[in-house]
């Protein structure tokens, strides 16, 4: 669902904003750029963009306010509000694909966070964190190969590969070798 060129699109929109006559592009440019910042989880740039959007654009294009509602919920880490705002707002063709991709990206991030942060949690809590009904939350947990037992989701911790750490003697030997090489 991710628009394939979302990163290049974001760069183009930033350029359009800079090149716009009077420094004020059409509200549709602001809407797409704000949605892309949220998709990238670049909340600081989203907030700065929101502050520099002229009030006239905000009032003439109400969809900007709806996108910013999603941004505020993301800023406050209120995932249920993020999901409900995205799902309950009729988005224009201008940004509907970006908002769908944002929804999926937030779900993916939330699922990864749950996998790292929880040893177990209730199905209801998990469903709120990933923005689906409890029946669907059980399916999401199964897709992650997590256990669901007596109303609890039990995530399996992701395996984090750590690079082998060389001993201090090995590091000193390599450093000495390198310095010797440089001196020659």
TrEMBL record:
Superkingdom of origin: Eukaryota
GO cellular component labels: COP9 signalosome; cytoplasm
Residue intervals of the CSN8/PSMD8/EIF3K domain: 28-154
Entries under InterPro entries matching the protein: COP9_CSN8, CSN8_PSD8_EIF3K
Main location: cytoplasm
Transmembrane segments: none
Record localization: Cytoplasm; Nucleus
Record keywords: Cytoplasm, Nucleus, Signalosome
Keyword Cytoplasm: yes
A GO biological process held by the record: protein deneddylation
Protein name per Swiss-Prot or TrEMBL: CSN8/PSMD8/EIF3K domain-containing protein
Organism annotation: Laodelphax striatellus (Small brown planthopper)
Lineage: Eukaryota, Metazoa, Ecdysozoa, Arthropoda, Hexapoda
């Amino acid at each position: 669902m991710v628009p394939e060129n979302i990163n290049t699109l974001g760069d183009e929109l930033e350029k359009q904003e800079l090149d716009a006559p009077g420094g004020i592009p059409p509200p549709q440019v602001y809407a797409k750029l704000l949605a892309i910042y949220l998709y990238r989880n670049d909340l600081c740039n989203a907030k700065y963009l929101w502050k520099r959007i002229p009030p006239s654009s905000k009032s003439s294009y109400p969809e900007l306010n709806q996108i910013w509602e999603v941004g505020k919920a993301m800023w406050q880490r209120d995932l249920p509000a993020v999901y409900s705002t995205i799902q309950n707002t009729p988005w224009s063709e201008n940004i509907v694909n970006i908002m769908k991709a944002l929804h999926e990206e937030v779900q993916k991030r939330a699922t990864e966070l749950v996998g790292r942060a929880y040893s177990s949690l209730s199905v209801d809590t998990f469903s709120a964190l990933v923005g689906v009904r409890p029946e669907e939350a059980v399916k999401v947990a199964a897709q992650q190969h997590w256990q669901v037992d007596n109303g609890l989701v039990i995530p399996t911790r992701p395996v984090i590969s750590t690079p082998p750490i060389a001993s201090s003697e090995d590091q000193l030997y390599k450093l000495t070798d390198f310095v010797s090489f440089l001196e020659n």
